[in-house]
Amino acid sequence: MAAVTSQHAPATERPTKTKWVFLFMPGRAEGNATMRALLGGKGAGLAEMTNAGLPVPPGFTITTEACNAYFDGGRKLPAGLWDQVLEGLAAVERETGKRLGDAKDPLLVSVRSGAQMSMPGMMDTVLNLGLNDETRAGLAKLTGNERFAWDAYRRFIQMFGRIVLEIEGSEFEHALEAAKKKAKAKLDTDLTGDQLKGVVAEFRKIVRKEKGRDFPSDPREQLRLAIEAVFRSWFGKRAHDYREVNKIAHDLGTACSVVTMVFGNMGNDSATGVAFTRDPNTGERAIFGEYLINAQGEDVVAGIRTPRKLSELEAELPKGYREFTEIAQRLEKHYRDVQDLEFTIERGRLWMLQTRSAKRTARAAVRIAVDMVREGIIDRKEAVKRVEPVHVDQLLLPRFDEKAVERARMEGRALGKGLNASPGAATGRAVFEADRAVEMKGKGETVLLVRPETSPDDFAGMVAAAGILTSRGGSTSHAAVVARGLGLPCVVGMETLTVDLAKRTMKVGGRTIKEGARVSIDGATGEVFLGELPTIRPDYDKEKDLHQVLAWADEIRALGVWVNADTPDECRRARKFGAEGVGLARTEHMFRESERLPYVQAMILAATEQERRKHLKKLESFQVKDFREIFAAMDGLPVVIRLIDPPLHEFLREIDEREVARITGLTRPKARAHIEARRAQLHEENPMLGLRGCRLLLVFPEILEMQIRAILGGAADVAKKGVAAKPEIMMPLVGTMGELHFLREKVMETAAHVEKERKTKIPFKFGTMIEIPRACIIADEIAKHTEFFSFGTNDLTQTVLGISRDDAQKSFLTRYVEEKVIPTDPFVSIDQDGVGAMVRIGVERGRKTKPDLKIGICGEHGGDPASIDFFHRAGLTYVSPSTFRVPSARLAAAQAAIAGGVVRDR
Amino acid sequence: MAAVTSQHAPATERPTKTKWVFLFMPGRAEGNATMRALLGGKGAGLAEMTNAGLPVPPGFTITTEACNAYFDGGRKLPAGLWDQVLEGLAAVERETGKRLGDAKDPLLVSVRSGAQMSMPGMMDTVLNLGLNDETRAGLAKLTGNERFAWDAYRRFIQMFGRIVLEIEGSEFEHALEAAKKKAKAKLDTDLTGDQLKGVVAEFRKIVRKEKGRDFPSDPREQLRLAIEAVFRSWFGKRAHDYREVNKIAHDLGTACSVVTMVFGNMGNDSATGVAFTRDPNTGERAIFGEYLINAQGEDVVAGIRTPRKLSELEAELPKGYREFTEIAQRLEKHYRDVQDLEFTIERGRLWMLQTRSAKRTARAAVRIAVDMVREGIIDRKEAVKRVEPVHVDQLLLPRFDEKAVERARMEGRALGKGLNASPGAATGRAVFEADRAVEMKGKGETVLLVRPETSPDDFAGMVAAAGILTSRGGSTSHAAVVARGLGLPCVVGMETLTVDLAKRTMKVGGRTIKEGARVSIDGATGEVFLGELPTIRPDYDKEKDLHQVLAWADEIRALGVWVNADTPDECRRARKFGAEGVGLARTEHMFRESERLPYVQAMILAATEQERRKHLKKLESFQVKDFREIFAAMDGLPVVIRLIDPPLHEFLREIDEREVARITGLTRPKARAHIEARRAQLHEENPMLGLRGCRLLLVFPEILEMQIRAILGGAADVAKKGVAAKPEIMMPLVGTMGELHFLREKVMETAAHVEKERKTKIPFKFGTMIEIPRACIIADEIAKHTEFFSFGTNDLTQTVLGISRDDAQKSFLTRYVEEKVIPTDPFVSIDQDGVGAMVRIGVERGRKTKPDLKIGICGEHGGDPASIDFFHRAGLTYVSPSTFRVPSARLAAAQAAIAGGVVRDR
Fold first, then answer.
1. pLDDT over 90 (residue B589)
2. Distances (CA, A) of B318 to A333, A648, B155, B310
3. Contact across the interface for A802 and B689, Cβ inside 8 Å
């Protein structure tokens, strides 16, 4: 979700006659549902319900602008506000016939926070405001219930003391506990009126001790202080953190609704409850909620008494239940969305206290969207908008059984938290080295790879693992990126974790955990547990509702969705997920498999071209098989193959000397010496900017030759069997026309050779990555000699920003994001103003030469919804995310098309 | 000089009636001086002289187009050419009354190469063509000189055999030597006619043996073969290499002039010589040349007989001398430039064989330019164009005495060659470590620092050295770049050299040279010698002619010329050289001085901000002194100070543990452990793209604070003494507005503090480096909050091209340049299409916000003439080269203004 920014102008610039307060009185409210920004979700909902003739206790809402003016004015209520509050109060008093502070018939109110964006439980609310010694007595007399009045008073002082006076809540809880102990009471409800009176006295002592003054008895002072406290809660730590996580702007402010109190705790004909119009967990179409007889709202939340299922209310209070379910259905239809409702029944009379769109799980979101289309409530476009791309991701990932997680926490097996780098849940035996992971996997074990951090050499081990845990690195570290690519659960940067590679142990929270011990990680939350937690693995084929939503998304979207896939398995899976082609098949992974790596290494060590060619011949025989299988898996769909990209020294990290000696025919000491020398020679200060990509292919054109032979040979092989192979050969890191001309010529020359050898025409396309700024600048020239572009936005981000992805996370990027130096991590969501501007230059110039040039993007950003929205606007042809993000990318692409209103002909 | 490209269309596209041959007959030539591209310098010169009525032997020139057509057609003479040659030949025969192959009165010709750009001695010429047994006899009869005829024949076969038939020249030389030995002759001239006859017989045997055929006796066949050989010599190795070095396009082709032979060896009334209209070494205004009586041109060049000074000719052949000097003066006036002439006097009659603009030394270029303005031959603009920026550089550098170099070569003290990385000559004792360099310098020794390669830690040692020699690295390696910055002679990448740091020796060419041995390096040629060679050091103050040329340049140029200078000494020197401000004062060098480094290290090791601040306080006291001196040196001129830029780990390379322990109060083992841990923590995969520049200042704002305090404090201190300090504070590596806002606020806040403390206003400017692509893209935004930009084209080149300067040279960049993948090393001369385009975006956007924004460039490119030309066209305000390139930059800036025709108001 993009950050929501405020449209408020600073208070000082506004006319003095600002309307700060909006009334809602039975049948007539000054606000409505469209005024969320000004009245908050709660205020807008109360106004809308009021206008709809629903039973809402009278009250008024103070605007979010008042909150902002409060902060802009140095935490002072803005001019005119208090007068408007008093006017609103007078109106409420006229409506109810009660008066705030009236000892005989006191008006009590709740003071409730409510922001534009729902922030459940993040800000504060004060109930029962207006009580003091006199009004309490009046309330007792009026209700004929001393205990109720003392309990309401006790609750008020406790809540007001904690929230408004900012006294540590535990002070009150201790006093209450002491009273219960003294009275030998188990529950709060076991305390008698007299005993509660004692508690009130204790609470007032606490206030006097902590604040040096008596508890404020003037209800108007109470009201003013409570309003300020609600405003202040906007910048409370919880609320602030929530906004950070959910990317909500800090300058939106909260509204504050002052609502006549109704009491669900006035006896057994009273109740209070919360409900959803459909099940927010499963999406099932049935009202779903909880209630308590004779209780106030906070009791439901606090969990002191166990609430009952809403359906049981029908038997207890049939009239209230019927009224409520009718209203709930009306509201769902009215809002055309599942509603999250709060209600109170006071002495048999139903009052609606809140309605808002319900938060829902991924599963529920999908089901509700599909059901509502079927029910004719929303159209397909709306359904596509209602499901979030992250919902789709979540649906495809294994997750822990929530009860098992609870149990593990209770049993003290929660080891702590790292960064949630790649969602999904995984359980397995901890291993600390890639080789061991492969070995144990070979023995049929499920393993979790635990490392200080990972490198490309760990790839085989990562593939073998069910999940990855590292003690270092951020959300764009190697581990995180590869894990997301593989769709593996991954937790990184768990700072309390120390891995001792020598001893094959890890230490965390004072515990030493040996290799082979069972560990569980939740990549969605970052939590790590000791022991095995049962996981639930969804089956994509069975997700019929999801298929429906994605089918609708496909009707709408303009962007193609391809996939980054390197293996036939990945290709097959991606195809099932709806990928329309392979946007990036990386060939270097094909070099890293254990039986091949020694040949790659021998090739790198070779002193002469002739010797290199000998080893390349062997590698060709491996690669041709890979390509055959990939083409077969993608039969009829294009496969963009990027030639070898990483620097050669990456292949020399771990070496099987014996095998290399065997292949090269050297003695082992000689092989060792060669390896050392070559390593030193290939060492680079900044490998990211070094001898890699097409530079490597220029220096060693025989590698290029081998790869072209393998690709086109593979294509020719499967074509004979009737497979429609569509290879597209892609050059990495091209930055100059000199490189492009050289490479293109070499490719065409080799292709002609292969065609001659095989006596057949092998159709293919030729294109380039656009991943360094210079390529964007000369894109018009490049387009003259290429059939497609693919933006490599990972590298482009590194070069446009001058930031090393490998290093920045640990040193400054996290800090930059935290301190808002930059709005988001540019490796997660594309930096639209910088990297995006460069992408636009590349697109514009490329299309100047070839208006219908096919332009894709195959960086990590291809799976990020905000980036997908940008790529849609930039006019790209397709995005190519990692396999498991293909479905969510289809959805995000459709949402981008809806938002932009532009549908291109694909 | 920019590469000269050909305007020739391929021969196949030309009409068939192409004119391949241009005649020159006494008084009437078909070509003229403007047709250099088509006729070559020689052909155009012969035509022009002919038209001017000067005595030029009749002949014709075959065009460069014919040469290109020859290669395009697969080394075949193009259609129609041979016919035109025969027509030309007939015309010459008519003119001279002689006929090629005529036994009675044979026409002999020379066949001479001549390209558009002068390539002295690089291509081939055949003299005496037309001789065979019959014509030789005819020649003998005609001249009455048997010996002369045999000698001419011998020379012809030898020259033709070597050049046209491509027989190893030594074969002929050995045969000649054998004949001399047999005849007990010392010199060739001691051989009699008969003996020469024997030599001819031997030569013909050699031809038969080597080529399996007789020496071609048909003069027409000789002519055709010779023309083809001249064409082929265009792609001879020498010519190819020369063009590479001098950036001359390979597709220009050579012309071929066929000229009637005149003989300077027809007796004592004959002579041959070469001359310059002014001394090409000193520029002195006096005819300068050499001649030999009774000799052919090749004898002058071959050095077998010692030529005599031209002035002596007056006594020997007064008429010829007078005629020649008159013609020489006419030609200089005609061409308005010093001429390089060839002449022959045949039996008293003068013939002009060549005129061309003379190559000249730096000193001569400057003097001639100034003199010619005074003489009214050229104007100031022309004078500024006549001196090359590299001439200016050369004039300021120490150089070896040429005779001493010759002697060293003779004595076998030439050790070999590396890359000429930074010009100038240096002699000193070889040392292999920076510390030792400092130590021995301290003892009053002059040292040369010899390293495998250098790193920033060697800086102090480099400063202490008189020159630098490395066995690894290219022209943009650390050693090369720093040396150029310091104006130190430097030879890098001497591959035959091995440095043994442990033994403190170096090995080269089988010799082992110990520390302390005297070595000499010539940074202009890359040559390295054993022993001390005397150097000549120019005194800038005495270079009055240079001052004059630069003063004229200053009148013309639009670009400002500032300087990159980090020390007061450099500032003072640069000011003398004409720098108008400091465009880049790097503060990190101030951190590296030996007494300070331990404090820097302690600061880096500090665990808390408080501790860091303690050490920074100490560093502030050092830096404030630096700035005081720099401001005083630049009194009245702006000084742009870049805050600390490199990653912190660069300061942890070499550590004095004892000193760090003392400063931090840790025990030595603890200090060691801290250092190790911090090093590991700060390690980066790609430090170039890591935690450096403004990122460092954001993470450690206390460093920024310290530097601002030191800069403004220093400025305030000297202001009190009447110095007009003009500090301009520059942020490195800014890429986002978030960074800029944070840094700007911090700077302004600190500045306000310092002003309050000192109770004085301290004026300064605030600006940014523009050195990553994103900064160019958001330059309009950046300009809103800054007072100046300075392009850091080194880093911008790295990021726009995605190339690491540290690595690329050794791995692929040299190869790229060699194989023409890119036209020039982008770190030497700015990549105009890529990096330049990005610079233009930055300039355009910055000036959109602030039309008069001051924009400089402080990368290495600021000293490169081609780059300066680009920066002029891009509308920059100033360039800031290293100190020693300030004078040449002034000249280059003026040349850019002349070329562009645009003069901006500075």
1. no
2. 120, 73, 29, 11
3. yes
- Using a 10 angstrom Cβ sphere, with 0-12 exposed, 13-18 middle and 19 or more buried, the burial of residue A725 is buried
Is residue B758 a contact partner of residue B824, using CB atoms and an 8 Å limit? no
Token look-up 């098309």 returns A897
The residue whose two tokens read 């000269």 is: B4
Do the chains contact at A773 and B773, CB–CB below 8 Å?
Answer: yes
Instruction: Tell me which chain A residue has its CA closest to the CA of residue B738.
Output: A821
Secondary structure, 3-state, B272-293: EEEEECCCCCCCCCCCEEEEEE
Catalytic residue among A8, A391, A478, A861: A478
Q: Which residue has the tokens 């397909």?
A: A380
Report CB contact under 8 Å: B800, A774.
yes
Among A689, A694, A768, the residue to mutate for chain B (most B Cβ within 10 A): A689
| Of B499, B494, B460, B496, residue with least CA distance to B477 | B494
Mutate to test the interface with A, among B777, B797, B832, B844 (most CBs of A within 10 A): B777
Task: Give start and end residues of each alpha helix (H) in A606-693.
Answer: 609-633, 657-664, 668-682
Please indicate whether, in this complex, the C-beta atoms of A686 and B806 are within 8 angstroms of each other.
yes
- How long is chain A? 906
B701-720 and B737-758 are packed helices; what angle lies between their axes, rounded to 10 degrees? 40
Residue in chain B nearest A739 by alpha carbon: B821
Predicted-complex ipTM score: 0.81
Amino acid symbol at B893: A
Q: Which of B738, B802, B837 sits opposite A735 (nearest CB)?
A: B802
Give yes or no for a contact between A551 and A384, defined as CB atoms under 8 angstroms apart: no
The per-residue pLDDT for range A360-412, each reduced to its tens digit, is 878 899 999 999 999 999 999 999 999 999 889 888 888 898 889 989 988 88
Residues of B marked as catalytic: 478, 858
CA distances from B71 to B74, B123, B227 (A): 5, 16, 13
Nearest-neighbour CA in chain A from B827: distance (Å) = 14
Q: What share of chain A is helix, strand, coil (3-state, %, to 5)?
A: 50, 15, 30
Across the interface, do A736 and B821 touch by the CB < 8 Å criterion? yes
Q: Which residues contact B899 (CB under 8 A, 6 or more apart)?
A: B869
Residues of B within 8 A of A738 (CB-CB) are 816, 820-822
| 3-class DSSP assignment, residue A430 | strand
Interface test with A, best of B498, B797, B799 (most A CBs within 10 A): B799
- Nearest residue to A43 via CA among A72, A11, A20: A20
Using an 8 Å Cβ cutoff, are B488 and B465 in contact? Answer: yes
Per-residue pLDDT tens over the stretch A824-878:
889 889 999 999 999 999 999 999 999 999 999 998 899 999 999 999 999 999 9
User: Minimal Cα distance from B796: which residue of A?
Assistant: A802
- Show residues of chain A in contact with B695, CB under 8 Å: 811-812
Nearest to B806 among A685, A795, A831 (CB): A685
Q: How far apart are CA B119 and CA B4, in angstroms?
A: 13
For residue B686, which residues of chain A lie inside 8 Å, CB to CB? 685-689, 804, 806-807
Nearest residue of A to residue B798, measured between CA atoms: A689
pLDDT tens digit string along A701-721?
999 999 999 999 999 999 999
| CB burial of residue B617 (10 Å; 0-12, 13-18, 19+) | middle
pLDDT digits (tens, 9 = 90+) for A630-686: 999 999 999 999 999 999 998 998 888 899 999 988 999 998 988 888 888 888 889
Instruction: Read off the pTM.
Output: 0.82
Residue of A nearest to B777 (CA): A834
Distance CA B785, CA B765 (A): 11
